[in-house]
Amino acid sequence: MESYRTEEEQVEALRRWWDENGRSTIVGIGLALLAVFGWQGWQQYQQQQREQASDIYQQLLNSASQAELTPARQGEIERLAGSLKDDYSGTTYAQFASLQLARLAVADGDLERAESELRWVLSAADRSSDIALVARQRLARVLASNGDTEAALDLLKVTSSNPYVASYQVARGDTLLAAGRRAEALEAYQLAWQLESENPGQLNTVTLQQKLSSLNPVAPTDVELSQDAGSAIEAGSDSELQGEGA
Amino acid sequence: MLQNIRSNIQGTTTKIVVWLIAISFAFFGIESILLGGGSSGVAEVNGEDISAMEVQQMVNTQKRQLISMLGEDIDPAMLDDQRLSAQAIQSIINRRLLMQSADDMNLTISELEVGRVVGAMEQFYLNGRFSPEVYKSTLAQAGFTPSSFKQGLKQDLLVNQLRSGLAGSEFATPAELALTAEIAAEQRDVRYLTIPLASVKTDIEVTEEQIQAYYESNQAEFYSPESVVLNYIELQADDFRAPVDEEELLSMFEQEKNSYQYQTENRVSHILLTQSDDESDQDYAERIATLQSALDSGQDFAELAEQYSDDIASASSGGDLGFSSGDAFPEEMESAIAALATNTVSSAVQTEAGTHFIVVTERREAESVTLEELRPELEQRLQDQAAAATLLSTVETLRDKVFNAQDLNGPAKDLELEVQTSEPLSRDQAAGLFSKPAVLSAIFSEDVLDLGHNSEVIELSPQHFIVLRVQKHNQPELQALPVVRDSIIAAITDQTARERVTEKAQQALASIRSGQSVEETAKASGYEWQVEIGAQRSGSMLPPALAQRVFRLAAPADGESVVDFTLNAQGDAEVFELSRVTAGSYSALAPQQQQGLQQQIALEYSNLLQQEFQQKLRNDADIVIY
């Protein structure tokens, strides 16, 4: 460390340093301030965008939760969702809105529209995000409903890292059953059922159980032959055949 | 001084110390030094603490809900803090995970939105409008501050947005509806006959050997249940009712009679003259005199009131002020009123307001109550008071005595109480005094059951106490054959009857399979038979056991049929022929059913999705519970 003998020398040294470095110091400080305020402004802008998107989405939910979906309400939902997808396309809310539109389109029987909404979600969302995984399963179901079984099954292939295996298996079962591939459908439903019964929560599984019991019937009781019911031989073999047919 | 520090910094040791301080600040931040390092939470979710207070709040809320749902008689085990807080922690963790996930997705709720929601909550309305006062006081009562309430609301809205976006946008495709309807709305034509269990029960003989064999092979069934016989002292306030002391009754009557008495009430009119600021004393006195003479001349009071009175409110109604029972007006007025006969005008009365002329237009005289009228009520109250006091002091003494005594007889004798003996009681006593949770848990506590001590004096209600001890503890033991003989015979009879019914069902089955119709078979053996065309899976057309069996079978080929049977819960056999299966059709369903099916499918998918989402959050999370 340098040491100075007098106050004057110190002042002189400072002045020299300032003449050499003053400009770059000021520019540096200026740049730093600009960066800090710019960053804050950007953050604030983003937060504002999210809040606006959130408000719009909340309005959309309010309209969509009404019991009766009048054309006027449908139009309102379309308008709000359109604004989210156009002006706030980077937000999660745009994707949520698109999922809601897909839901309404399916209820309307407009499968093309549902497909295009779901494809939009898939293009907008991160590939491994929950939203993308959900949208993929739904897209598969919409395609299956249009008769494109193979494309649907392709989308419904699960990797081990997919947390929605049970949902995917139920959808696979539905797709296969609709295509008449009953044995494979049963397998998919059984896998889903096994996963669901391991789940700690209580799930609503009425139709899954009905499908399982329909696809996996029991054989009728076999009667032991006794002397006075000799004619039951035919009936007995009959029932076995039906058992196998299942 | 700066110079001083500067020169001190030169030393190597000092330099090292300064650098150490600098480095520690740089790495750990100032808060870890100021606030202390360790976490004070009960659990940690991805690095976020869950505080003990948060858990306790949740536990308290749950307790209140449980009590309001199940009443005060609730089993204390259900309110166990440890159990509840374990649940509370789990649900707080789940909620926290949802919040973090919402945050990751950049979901947010604006202050404006929170304000809108609060503004629309009718709990905070007064006269049809939002009232900030009602808002604050309602929150305070529920233990919230406006900011904590808004915070909670914000979280609710966020979780709702997340749920609506993922699970709430679920649907049911046309293909799914069609295939589900095929199965759910499937119709099956069934002919069936019933073979009642009772019909084969009549002539069953059970041999001694059978009984002996059954007894030996099913011994586990024949143990008597564990039971206890209790000695107990029951104290009820009603037992301490004693005749009431007449003198006490009288003095109570004296104290109370005024509050039962109707007060004397006077309906009053007045004319008020008030001296205004710019009125001289003389003018004012003159005004009073004019009015006085008008009154004296007998002019109508009501008219004069309208003309002269400065009390604008009453002037137009003839000076009428309504009723007073002696405390509505200033004292000067009230004493004048009390002294007035009805419909005479008083002389001038001075109050702070000015000069009044008063008329009593109507008087309702007080009616006094008699001792006899009040006697039953007062007696009851005196008895209640006395009985409650005696009960409490007896309970206090009893507490001390039973704590030290070997049994209940001594304390009972000292206090002139009666020791009673109970019937044998089991752990799952369903009714009566001993089924109350507090009593049951006392009986089967280690102290009372195993060590044979007296229980504490248990308060069932403020008027009802009990103390007990176990007189006899009956362990489960194998009952002798003669005791259980009857039930063995019943069991064997039932078993045999079921075998016979099954046998008969199989015969009927064979006969139908060989080509006879259900009707013919039923008629030949005298069974009842029925036909159901188009029975449904979820309908109630078929008896439940039969419906279950019918829909578990594969559909027969066209033109053929399947014959099978099942035993229902009562043991009756139901033999049926399933002849035709018609797949359900979505388009044939009523609009309401169609909607129901849509909702059902979407609900099943969205339930599952929500569950898997939550499970995924948990699996990915870093959760520590201390």
Number of helices of chain B: 22
| Binned strand content of chain B | 15-25%
Please state roughly what percent of the residues of chain A sit in beta strands, choosing from under 5%, 5-15%, 15-25%, 25-35%, 35-45% or over 45%. under 5%
**Interface with most residues:** A-B, 74 and 66 residues
Shape assignment of chain A: elongated
Integer count of domains of chain A? 2
Rounded to an integer, what's the Rg of chain B over CA atoms? Answer: 44 Å
Average pLDDT taken over every residue of chain B: 85
Class by alpha and beta content of chain B: alpha+beta
Shape of chain B: extended
Work out the helicity level of chain B: 40-55%
Which oligomerization state do the chains in this entry correspond to? heterodimer
Describe it.
Chain A: One of its GO terms (molecular function) is protein-containing complex binding. Chain A: Keywords: Cell membrane, Chaperone, Membrane, Transmembrane, Transmembrane helix. The complex is a heterodimer of chains A (246) and B (626). Chain A has 246 residues and is mostly helical. Chain A folds into two domains: 48-125; 148-246, no CATH class. Chain A is built from ten helices and no strands. Chain A has helices at residues 7-64, 71-87, 92-108, 111-124, 130-145, 149-155, 165-178, 182-198, 206-215, 232-245. In chain A, helix 2 (71-87) runs antiparallel to helix 3 (92-108). The radius of gyration of chain A is 33 Å and the shape is elongated. The model of chain B has no long low-confidence stretch (mean pLDDT 85). In chain B, strands 14-5-16-15 form a four-stranded antiparallel β-sheet. In chain B, helix 8 crosses helix 22 (591-620). The relative contact order of chain B is 0.13. Chain B is 51% helix and 16% strand. By secondary structure, chain B is an alpha+beta fold. Among the domains of chain B are: 2-35, no CATH class; 174-182 and 589-625; 186-199 and 483-583; 227-243 and 372-474; 262-364, Chitinase A, domain 3 (Roll). At the A-B interface, helix 1, helix 3, helix 5, helix 7 and helix 9 of A face helix 7, helix 8, helix 19, strand 15 and helix 22 of B.
